[in-house]
Design brief:
CATH architecture: 4-Layer Sandwich
CATH topology: Glutamine Phosphoribosylpyrophosphate, subunit 1, domain 1
Number of strands: 6
Distance between the termini: 15 Å
CATH class: Alpha Beta
Shape: flat
Strand order of the largest sheet: 1-2
Largest sheet: 2 strands, antiparallel
Helix content: 25-40%
Number of helices: 3
Number of domains: 1
Order of helices and strands: EEEEEEHHH
Structural class: alpha+beta
CATH superfamily: Aminohydrolase, N-terminal nucleophile (Ntn) domain
């Protein structure tokens, strides 16, 4: 077991009057130490039409952003279908199963 405790973050989203906002902090931490304070945890995908955010391991998040955008392109921007297909791939792929 690791001597360090990893802490995750919260990504929050709001939809109000037909408009959406998504936000998070910008810190990557290990234990109680801030490793980087300018991490972008919210991204625009699919030509700016989809907002996505992550909490947890930064390296894993980059992989998931990339794979989700591939699925969005494959399914013409259908977010639900892209998410379902990504989840199916995640269950089958040994590399994905190791992601945090």
């Amino acid at each position: 077991m690791s001597a360090f405790k990893l802490h995750a973050t919260t990504v929050v989203g709001v939809i109000h009057n037909g408009k959406a906002a998504l936000g998070s902090d910008g810190q990557a931490t290990m234990d109680k130490t801030v490793m980087k304070s300018t991490v972008k945890k919210v991204r625009k995908l699919y030509g700016g039409k989809v907002l996505a955010g992550f909490a947890g391991s930064t390296a894993d998040a980059f992989t998931l952003f990339e794979k989700y955008e591939e699925k969005l392109n494959e399914y013409n921007g259908n977010m639900q279908r892209a998410a379902v297909e990504l989840a199916k791939e995640w269950r089958k792929d040994k590399f994905f199963q190791k992601l945090e």
